Amino acid sequence: MIPVVCWEPTKKTYPVERDRVLLQSLLQKGAPVEFECQFGHCRKCIVHLKEGFVRHEDAQGITEEEKKQGFVLLCSAKPCSETLSLAPLKND
Asked: pTM for this structure?
């Protein structure tokens, strides 16, 4: 089964690939995600994982504590569950 991301602000769903980081898959599908460096340093693509599981590849821009709190860097996370629900952080 192909993993699916529900993008919380719009409730739109996007199929994603297991072997690609979420940012690549979501951009390819036209999701309105914010990003800048694509390497985890800028933290522009940080989101809150409301449902599901991911594994972080080389996640230099996120702490273990943030991961425990449910934060995800789209540029370094790959899906590990069939359904993910993601919510962007509010930018002030």
From this structure: 0.90
Amino acid in the structure at residue 85: S
pLDDT of amino acid 92: 41
- Give tens-digit pLDDT for 44-72: 999 999 999 999 887 678 898 999 999 99
Match 């370094």 to its residue by tokens. Answer: 76
Which distant-in-sequence residues (6+ apart) come within 8 Å of 75 by Cβ? 21, 22, 23, 35, 37, 38, 39, 40, 45
Burial, 16: exposed, middle or buried (Cβ in 10 Å; 0-12, 13-18, 19+)?
Answer: buried
Q: Do 48 and 73 touch, CB atoms closer than 8 A?
A: no
